[in-house]
Design goal:
53% of the residues lie in helices and 10% in strands. The chain has 28 helices and 11 strands. Helix 7 packs antiparallel against helix 8 and helix 8 runs antiparallel to helix 9. The two termini are 60 Å apart. Belongs to the adaptor complexes large subunit family. This is AP-1 complex subunit gamma.
Amino acid sequence: MFRDLAGEVEQLAREGQPSVRRKAVVCAVLIIRKVPDLIDAFVALGDQLLTDRTHGVPHGAVMLIAEMCEQNPQALEHFCKRVPHLVGILHNLVVAGYSPDNSISGISDPFLQIQILRLLRILGRDNEETSDSMNDALAQVATNTETTRNVGNAILYETVLTIMGVQSASGLRVLAINILGRFLVNKDRNIRYVALASLQKLLQAEGCAVQRHRSTVLACLTDPDPTVKRRALQLSLALVNSSNVRATIKELLDFLSTCAPDLKSDCASGIFLAAEKFAPNKRWHIDTVLQVLTMAGSYVRDDAVPNLIHLIGGATELHSYAVQQLYEALAQDISQQPLVQVATWCIGEYGNLLLAGSCEEVEPKQVDPEEMLSLLERVLQSHLSLPATRGYALTALMKLGSRLQGNSINRIRRLVSIYCSCHDIELQQRAVEYNALFRKYDHLRSSLLEKMPLVEKAGYSEDGSEKEQPGRETSISLHISEAVLSGNSEPPESSQVSDLLNLLGDPTDPSPLQPVTSTPVATGSFLDLLRDLKPPAAALSPLAVYEQDELLVEFSMERPPLEPTLLLITATVSNRAPGDVTGFSLQVAVPKSFQVELLAPSGSTVPGQGGPPITQLIRILNPRKLPLRMRLRLAYTLPSGTAVQRIEEVSSFPEAAWQ
């Protein structure tokens, strides 16, 4: 029907009565929207109507041209030549005096002005020449439009969108940001909301200009309207950078203490991310996170506890300060579960510093052992404590038990034994194992309960999912491997490794230089008997995963029959070149549905042609039996002295390796 009537509609738009012409132009817009093939038939009509003086017809003509330009690149190129004419119409409307027929609130034909601004935005997009020809007109509209009425604000907002949508001059873009800044103090909450949303979108492109309005944005946090308040919070968090982090986070903490519960989670998470990214020092970072946990501990993300523990563990010089601050916070309030979990962990790890009363950052406070045990007992008995919190408290008691003597040990044993019949399986298992340490392995209790070694923290992307990155393994074996590759002859926390293995009855040599082979590390032990009873592992065909610079890396795979989800990979690195390749290191990353353990290599130098290869064992746990993908990062130095770093993707594992 549109195809049949297009000619009639065009004729009526050209020669009909004014009221009929206006309706015919609107009909032409709908025809083009439904049947874009008919655009060529209406291009000439758009040119003619643009010069028409009849009120209402130019408005429809601008709508028609905008629709054609959106649908057809040839029409867009054609009407770019009419930009000077459109700019002239806009100029006449801005400088025109009051007209009772066309003016609204003292502004001449605001609907036509808005439509022209939208059309200019379409014509100037990605077109520098066209954008330059409209800069003066946009500046005139931005500076001469009255803002006391909502009509003027609508035109100014459309002007801002046009300025930011075309390739306008930098000064004009700053003017547009300043207009939005004035909107922030408008009495109309809708205008304030629109300004905040627009500034959020423009922050990436015009960060410096938006930063000038930071104080006004922060003032919007006190707005009575909850939607404006939420938008102001989002923009305030986005405005945080290294130069204003102290002042902005202070304002956000004040807001966190008084805001509605539905905003506390977003505010707390935003403060955590900003503090982690822009913290000027570790003490400020720790203080900030502690304030958030104190004020809104029940609203923080699940990763807040391990992140703060990792932060405190890495700040060796602040252990005394952190444990004292956490102890005082815990004594005042045990209702905020994340705060209680971090505090009990720190008391278990660094409680000896509280007992010694040593702190250089603030006035030291010496804590009585019985007082500390009473506080942990209070946490265990509180109806507010979650099972995970009680688990932290039990572990803290055991850690303190390795540093206390006399009646305190008996009190700890009594508290732990209470949970040997707990209904929660995790707590019951933990208590039973801790009780066994007191009864059977008391001679190993001190070594087993030493301070935890600092583990590497996994990275996270913007949407909160864990990144796949080389070296994401955090096992003790990886730390030993890194020590070998760096030339360090002493692995970190080697005594803990030895003690853990001694608990199973296997003698072990903690030296990291021992190559990883399939030869048993103990003879005549109970574990050897179990090994002998196991059926042989299923071997798979070797897989060549890297072959460059005369280096060949092959994976020999096998799956133990009694552990169908485990894949054992022996990486063999051989060198075909006559010279030695030094400093060789191999790191592995897998998707987060897998677990990987990279054991120590047999060496870091790959001998030249004819020399023995080096080997390294990789353990892959695939509980869901998904197709295996792996990313390798190889680093080595060629005989010529050239350092090489490469990243390889391996996805050609046979089905037998994962099914």
